[in-house]
Amino acid sequence: MSLPPGFLDELRTRISISDVVGRKVMWDQRKSQPGKGDFWSPCPFHHEKTASFHVEDRKGFYYCFGCHAKGDALKFVQETENVGFMEAVEILAQEAGMEMPKRDPRAQEKQDRRALLAEVMEQAVQFFRLQLKTSAAHDARGYLQRRGLTAQALDRWEIGFAPDGWQNLWDALRGKNVPEDLIIGAGLAKPSNKGGNPYDTFRNRIMFPIRDARGRAIAFGGRAMDPNDNAKYLNSPETELFDKGRSLYNHGPARAASGRGSSLIVAEGYMDVIALAEGGFQSSVAPLGTAITENQLQMLWRMSDEPIIALDGDKAGIRAAMRLIDLALPLLEAGKSLRFAIMPEGKDPDDMIRSQGPEAVQAVLDQAMPMVKLLWQRETEGKVFDSPERKASLDKSLREKIKLIRDPSIRKHYGEDVKEMRWQLFRGTRSGGESSFQQRGSRGGGFRDGTRPPWKPGKGFGPIPQPRATTRASLVAGAEDEYFAAMREAVILATAITTPAVIPEFETSLERLQCADPDLAALRDMVLRHGISAPERLREEIDWSLGPHALENLFGLRHVGITPCLRKPGDTELASMTLAEEFAKLEARRGLDAELAEAEEDLGGLADEALTWRLRQAAEAKNKAVRSENEDQAQYDVGENGARLNRDERDAFGALLDRIGFSGK
């Protein structure tokens, strides 16, 4: 409906914003100056004790210096009454004594008929309420008592009873001269296919009136008393008053309660809503026998930015939650989302309140999960991701769902959250079974030879420990291996942090980076978590998570500081070459260690401790030979320090060198 020019201006001149606001607040007498039209009070939109909410009659506006809420009288009515714009106009126009503009004749005729249908519905409400007090409703009253409904609750919710029989309501309404077309038009009766009188829609059912946001009765929901009835719950058919996909049970009272700050709870059925409201959760609604529609979702978001979907803890409730995700994803906006509170298995809100009290329900609501977590749960629950193909299938499925989100900012944040949860699932146990770098850092740790790791949170990197000359390591990785790996890993991480653009190219290699030192592992985790999704914030995220000295200490290491690419941040070609070289060195070292370990097993009992140490010298010689690209030949005396090998040892040692491909003189 359009308003004629000047209507709103006239409305604003007739009303005083201080009168409108004054119904909801208590003015601060010390700060307010009524003679000047200047008023102050605590803000009605957020909890505070000081008077920071300012109203100026001359300007016709309000403003809160705390939460920054602002607007005129119409906006105030919309926010506090939780109504739409036209409803706010009607409310203020009635107060100001202004007649709302006339609609066109056809629209007026339609409106008049809707008003007549609403009157017929009110008569039906009263009929059903009276029937609940009769002897025919004995079983229905017993059922309601067992469900914990008091007489006062029955009156508040106007619950009634439709007696068994084909024309009880029809005869009662016709006896009051209600036209047949209005009874049928309200959905209270259906025409007979056998040429007889129309028959009642509801028979032998407990009746729940359904009212719109303005409090008009528009439909009924009926609960069958006959256990063999095909439909346990039956709603009114769609009429000029009732559109099932655009209606919510308990809409008006819930909207008002939500406007006062209560959390909006969406339950599955009438009894759940009644139980919740009676238990203190006034802002509770339910869809009408079907899954939540797009229109209902928009209605929910007009009442609350983040409704809580409280579903039964059974398979049907879980399926309903999962379907709602697909509906909601394309409609998400900044600040508009859903949270999900799944009741314990086999329970609904009504069961929990009756058996455990409102506190148990509140505990479940407090644990309501954001939609992104339920999306993750749906895509991963009950599945095993033990192969690259299965992991790729999960990635594809999640990407397709996230693409449904239209808002680019929300889509980006969903991607970051999903990547974090994917990290926890696939890579979170890489270091000591812990997925949090804070946990790894707090536990300390060190190399297998007992030396300290190169960096401790808040203390900074120390010099990477050099292997002691007296150390007699086995052929498998020891302190020297960790020293070598720690140097290479530090250079790799520093390069990635300096030039994040190369991280996607080396993501797989970074994922395989062992990082025996827990604090280097923490840096690796940060690079993988944020280096692709938010490279511009990578340093900031590291500073925030690991402390302000983490990067300073990393780049202060001598072998890191002399790396050429670090002096040219942003040079992707140089950074890429550096990472390729460093990863190659690590791979070469790991390959040699594997060969040596296998050779050690083959020696069996032939090798003593001295031979083990000498073979270690051979491994070091081999490793140096691999790293020396400009050296044509490398000659090493394996039997240095005056040691001599007997014939059996020489034969075994020669076989080992042949096995690992070492040719020395």
Automatic annotation (TrEMBL):
Cofactor: Zn(2+)
Chemical reaction(s) catalysed: ssDNA + n NTP = ssDNA/pppN(pN)n-1 hybrid + (n-1) diphosphate
Top-rank lineage group of the source organism: Bacteria
Cofactor note: Binds 1 zinc ion per monomer.
Enzyme class (EC, first level): transferase
EC numbers, comma separated: 2.7.7.101
Annotated source species: Leisingera methylohalidivorans DSM 14336
Protein name, UniProt field: DNA primase
GO cellular component: cytoplasm; DNA-directed RNA polymerase complex; primosome complex
Disordered, as annotated region: 429-469
Tagged with keyword Methyltransferase: no
Domain notes: Contains an N-terminal zinc-binding domain, a central core domain that contains the primase activity, and a C-terminal DnaB-binding domain.
BP GO terms, sorted: DNA replication, synthesis of primer
Similarity comment: family membership: Belongs to the DnaG primase family.
UniProt biased composition (Low complexity): 432-441
Listed HAMAP family: DNA_primase_DnaG (MF_00974)
